[in-house]
Design a protein that fits this description.
The protein is of the alpha/beta class and 344 residues long. The protein contains 7 helices and 12 strands. It has one domain: Spore Coat Polysaccharide Biosynthesis Protein SpsA, Chain A (Alpha-Beta Complex). α4 crosses α5. It binds beta-D-galactopyranose (2 copies) and manganese (II) ion (MN).
């Protein structure tokens, strides 16, 4: 009797062992290596070498211990209900982030559109970006313009380059702003997909006044509009006509995002721009245009495809909104403009 049990137990154990072996033999253990450990490739299996940890730039990097029982900021929300971080001054350690992104060799694209009279903004935009945007990282500017000769030939720092892309401008400023979605989308699939890992899309009528670096990067990010961060949903200037593709009902909406700054991985920015362009074309076929143009469609996208990171209004400030105490830094600021002079 006991012999029978022994045979069964042995058979069962043998089965268990071969089952486990069968399922684990081809597993790529390298996949489970926590970033930023280095792995050594030895055929199909990758083995972590603890020696190599010493080569990590994070090895013996000393910094203040994160305190789980203390919030880095108590005056503002620093993570959304869907657990996306909201980037404010004082919520991140730039040294750690810089090392992580250097290790990945992140290539960062910046797209900007300089059409018709927006030429007046581009010199300050680029000069200030050289000083404050992604310092120390690989940057590729993509300047889309209807007038190549109007783009200044500025000296770029090491690891940074610029490409001027000739496009034909639309007459109405509303079309200029909205068509950016299509142009970005198409240029991603034509070219950018092979040149950069992340793409940051900005308006030209902005000036960098303070640091903007890799803390902004993530799969897909949006910036909270400086005019609405304390407002109720009903105050958001979303498109409210239910027959528009940009429609957001008054009892929906998380934040009001600005149209002047968004980005993410090139793949994610492709999806975003594709959605916004298609929504705009749907409305165009009905002869309508959402209230705030591309910004309205972007807000619609972010409502149903939540951004994985949000940037506080520090990242798209407008002095029209004064100086609230929660805004400790004004990193990127709208350049005051004479609307009639730049838009006609
Ligand atoms: C304004 C801004 C516009 C648009 C609008 C939304 O402050 O200049 O571009 O974002 O808010 O209500
Ligand atoms: C304007 C801004 C334009 C565009 C528009 C909203 O205030 O100057 O560049 O962003 O709002 O689509
Ligand atoms: Mn603008």
């Amino acid at each position: 009797m006991a012999g029978k049990y022994l045979v069964f137990t042995c058979l069962f154990l043998a089965f268990l062992l071969s089952f486990t072996w069968y399922h684990l033999k081809d597993r790529d253990w390298g996949r489970y290596t926590a970033f930023p450990c280095q792995t050594e490739n030895t055929g199909s299996n990758s083995i972590i070498s603890h020696e190599r940890l010493k080569d990590s730039p994070l090895h013996r990097m000393l910094y203040e211990k994160p305190d789980l029982l203390k919030l880095p900021r108590t005056d503002v929300m620093i993570a959304t209900p869907w657990q996306a971080p909201i980037v404010w001054d004082g919520t991140y350690n730039l040294d750690i982030l810089n090392e992580l992104f250097h290790l990945r060799g992140a290539r960062i694209g910046l797209s900007v559109f300089v059409i018709r009279k927006y030429k007046v903004f581009i010199n300050d935009f680029l000069q200030s970006a050289e000083e404050f945007f992604m310092a120390g990282h690989k940057v590729h500017y993509y300047v889309f313009t209807d007038d190549v000769s109007g783009i200044p030939n500025i000296t770029l720092k090491e690891g940074r380059n610029m490409e001027v892309v000739k496009i034909s401008g639309y007459k109405r400023w509303q079309d200029i702003t909205m068509r950016r979605m299509q142009l970005i989308r198409d240029y991603i699939s034509q070219k950018l997909i092979n040149e950069v890992d992340y793409l940051v899309c900005l308006d030209a009528d902005l000036k960098f006044m303070d640091h903007i670096g890799v803390e902004i990067l993530g799969d897909v990010f949006g910036v909270i509009h400086p005019g609405f961060f304390g407002e109720s949903r009903t105050a958001f200037t979303h498109e409210r006509r239910n027959y528009s593709a940009g429609y957001i009902p008054e009892d929906e909406g998380d934040f009001y995002y600005t149209g002047c700054f968004f980005g993410g991985t090139v793949e994610e920015v492709y999806k975003l721009t594709n959605f916004c362009h298609n929504a705009m074309m749907e409305d165009k076929a009905k002869n309508i245009e959402a209230l705030w143009h591309d910004e309205s469609y972007l807000n619609k996208y972010f409502l149903y495809h939540k951004p994985t990171k949000l940037l506080s209004p520090e990242y798209a400030w407008n002095d029209y909104y004064g100086s609230p105490v929660v805004v400790k830094r004004k990193r990127l600021v709208h350049v005051p403009k004479d609307y009639n002079a730049v838009r006609d």
